[in-house]
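Query structure, 164 tokens:
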């Protein structure tokens, strides 16, 4: 079943859109974890740098968080581009964010949360800016990762279009 058929199925019966996601996190020693996701499963190993008690066995959960947000943005851009019949030749996304690690240690009144989140999105397309603006509005309104973080911190987009 393709994307548009899935969309029509969900429109006809919203209950068919409900999905359960399963993730298992197992201790991998030295501030590292094995994260198994989905039925296949897909596996990622996380780690912490030596200054935070780890041995740098993998990306930190904080880096993975930025990666997940960026990947979700890219996926939802492609998703909505298909729905809206917008041709995208290429997407390149960088994620930036700040965190004061004092919040993890309970120092001061710092929150252990990202601030100044900025998805830097480069889209290569032959479409006009108005169509891309409409596309990005749909992404901002419907990207699941945004709902996890947007209410706590504003997100500042940096979008550049390249002609294809």
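Result returned for the query:
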């Amino acid at each position: 079943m393709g994307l548009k058929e899935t969309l029509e199925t969900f429109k006809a019966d919203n209950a068919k859109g409900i999905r359960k996601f399963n993730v298992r996190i197992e201790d991998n020693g030295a501030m590292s974890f094995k994260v198994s996701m989905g039925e296949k499963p897909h596996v990622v190993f996380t780690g912490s740098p030596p200054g935070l008690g780890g041995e740098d066995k993998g990306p930190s959960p904080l880096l993975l968080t930025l990666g997940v947000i960026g990947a979700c943005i890219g996926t939802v851009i492609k998703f909505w581009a298909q729905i809206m019949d917008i041709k995208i030749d290429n997407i390149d996304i960088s994620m930036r964010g700040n965190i004061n690690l004092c919040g993890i240690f309970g120092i001061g009144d710092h929150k252990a949360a990202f601030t100044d989140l900025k998805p830097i999105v480069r889209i290569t397309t032959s479409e006009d800016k108005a169509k891309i603006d409409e596309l990005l509005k749909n992404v901002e309104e419907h990207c699941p990762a945004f709902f996890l973080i947007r209410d706590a911190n504003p997100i500042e987009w940096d979008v550049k279009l390249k002609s294809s």
